[in-house]
Write a structure and sequence with these properties.
Elements: E1 4-9, E2 15-21, E3 24-31, H1 44-66, E4 75-81, H2 85-102, E5 106-110, H3 111-117, E6 135-140, E7 145-152, E8 155-161, H4 167-177, H5 184-192, H6 215-231, H7 235-238, H8 240-266, E9 270-274, H9 281-294, E10 297-299, H10 311-322
Parallel strand pairs: 1-4, 4-5, 6-9, 9-10
Antiparallel strand pairs: 1-2, 2-3, 6-7, 7-8
């Protein structure tokens, strides 16, 4: 009998649902929330309200697109954390109610683990491209930046992490200083294509080991732009492309330097990129270059699977279902939830 998992993702401002059957993706639906753009960032209360409006039609659409019936579902997988507590509550509550009504189990999923395991998602039955254990994972998003050794689906060891801000936050904050609209990270990527990555130099943190730091870079960029704007109020708009390309190169340098250090320490050549920032074209290109340089086997997710989505929740729920890892109806979401 096939195993069919409904996945629900509601950790931040995207309401998503997906159906995975025996590891194969059947549908993946995402409802974005444009309301946050005018505030320059996600407003938690508005996000949770929008989730309440979106979750039923999104789940209904995912089931219809997959061509399955609710009675065919084996379990409901949902994001327990980390994320915005109000948003997580909506997804958790819906998952409980849906599963209780259908008399099927629920499976809790760690959002960060799911970003990594999305690489095991099949698009079709004969899809065999997937990383081999153990592999190194560079997990980069708006809220997290981590290096991990992944030994199995449920065995992940963090060997490096940010001691302050995440790389995605650095992209967004620098974009905001430049006056770019929210979300800033993709805008920096867009303008960097036409810019000179060596036009401006920004300080890189000196952090020992495999840990990261981005707060100093944000401060350096802020002061640099402030001083230049005093001399020329139009500086930011005049050099928008070069500024974008330069800050992007600096962030990518920091990430890739630590990744190479992790490779030298572990000798692991299977490398997995994961998280929202893995959509960045500069980082993706650097990973391809490092693969050639170091003879790595690199796995980069499809662009549509880099940001928050329910397909990654469903595939993680599928593996946990196989292991019999079910949650009770008394489970509660967690704003902070380490791997």
């Amino acid at each position: 009998m096939p195993i069919t998992i409904l996945g629900i993702e509601s950790s931040c401002d995207d309401t998503a649902a997906a159906i995975v059957r025996d590891g194969i993706l059947l549908s993946n639906v995402i409802a974005n929330q444009d309301v946050h753009k005018k505030y320059g960032g996600v407003v938690p209360e508005l996000a949770s309200r929008a989730h309440q409006q979106n979750i039923i039609p999104v789940v209904d659409r995912a089931i219809r697109d997959a061509g399955v019936k609710p009675v065919e579902l084996s379990a409901v997988a949902f994001t327990r954390g980390p994320g915005l507590l109000g948003s997580l509550l909506v997804g958790t509550s819906f998952a409980k109610g849906f599963a209780l009504a259908r008399n099927i189990p629920i499976v809790e999923v760690n959002h960060l683990q799911a970003h990594i395991l999305v690489h095991f998602l099949k698009m079709k039955e004969n899809d065999t491209k997937k990383p081999s254990f153990p592999f190194l994972s560079l997990l980069v998003s708006g809220g997290h930046t981590q290096l991990l050794i992944v030994r199995d689906y449920d065995q992940m060891e963090t060997i490096g992490k940010t001691i302050d801000d995440a790389a995605g936050e650095a992209f967004d904050k620098c974009a905001k200083v430049m006056g770019l609209p929210y979300p800033g990270g993709p805008m920096v990527d867009k303008y960097s294509v036409e810019g000179n990555p060596d036009a401006f130099k920004f300080s890189k943190p000196r952090v020992g080991g495999l840990d990261f730091s981005f707060s100093g870079l944000k401060t350096s960029f802020l002061y640099f732009l402030r001083d230049r704007m005093k001399e020329d109020p139009e500086f930011s708009s005049k050099y928008r492309n070069d500024l974008s390309a330069s800050i992007q190169k600096t962030i990518v340098d920091i990430l890739s330097d630590k990744l190479e250090m992790a490779y030298r320490q572990t000798g692991i050549r299977e490398i997995v990129l994961a998280g929202g920032v893995s959509a960045n074209s500069g980082l993706r290109k650097r990973m391809e270059d490092l693969a050639v340089k170091n003879n790595w086997k690199v796995y980069i997710p499809q662009a549509r699977l880099t940001t928050d989505n329910a397909a990654m929740i469903a595939i993680t729920g599928y593996f946990k279902f196989l292991s019999g890892e079910f949650a009770g109806l008394d489970i509660t979401p967690m704003a902070r939830m380490p791997l």
